[in-house]
Automatic annotation (TrEMBL):
Domain of life: Bacteria
Name of the molecule in the record: Uncharacterized protein
Length: 194
């Protein structure tokens, strides 16, 4: 996902589905995607801060270019009803009943220390955070909300033969005064099971 330069009230809900045991496999979905094919789409999350609001400390809601509103696993339920302001994140870990791998997989997100503009100016990635939700779900949150830290954050542990997902809504803290420009940076979501 590419972030450019959230504050919705956090709803701590997610979807968690049991999936059939089978040969070992991980499945990760962030933003637009397809269920059973490799997808190289990189969705953008961005905000334009009005001049009068710069460095005011008033958090700025971010928008996305995602169009993915429905789950890619299971029944096609609308998990993210407003994809223009949400990114759908889903992860599945499958293994055989004989236990052909670890009992769980780990979902992480990694960010650089800073976003940069064309002039080389920087803006701390820690200015960007996210809340999580899955409207209508009664399942407790299984993918964490947080703030990028210029390193790797663990978002969830995915038990064997389970699929989890929720929506991430991003915001820019707007508590620093950056040099003028468009700042870019890329975060990487990873699902791994050694």
């Amino acid at each position: 996902m590419l972030l450019g330069l959230a504050l919705a009230p956090p709803l701590v809900q997610a979807w968690s589905l049991n999936i059939a045991a089978a040969s070992r496999r991980v499945f990760l979905h962030v933003g637009n995607g397809t269920r059973d094919a490799t997808n190289t789409t990189i969705n953008r999350v961005e905000v334009t801060v009005p001049g009068a609001a710069l460095a005011s400390g008033a958090a700025q809601a971010m928008t996305t270019n995602s169009t993915q509103s429905t789950t890619l696993y299971g029944d096609g339920y609308t998990t993210c009803p407003t994809p223009a302001s949400q990114i759908l994140v889903g992860a599945a870990y499958r293994r055989s009943n004989g236990g052909d791998g670890p009992a769980s997989a780990t979902l992480t997100v990694t960010s650089p220390a800073s976003l940069t503009n064309a002039a080389g100016d920087t803006l701390p990635f820690s200015q960007i955070s996210w809340t999580v939700s899955a409207p209508g779900s009664s399942v407790p949150n299984v993918i964490a909300a947080g703030t990028f830290n210029g390193g790797t954050l663990t978002l969830a542990t995915v038990p064997a033969n389970t699929y989890i997902e929720n929506c991430h809504t991003f915001s820019y803290a707007n508590s620093v005064l950056p040099a003028a420009g468009t700042y870019n940076g890329r975060v990487t979501y990873t699902l791994s099971s050694p």
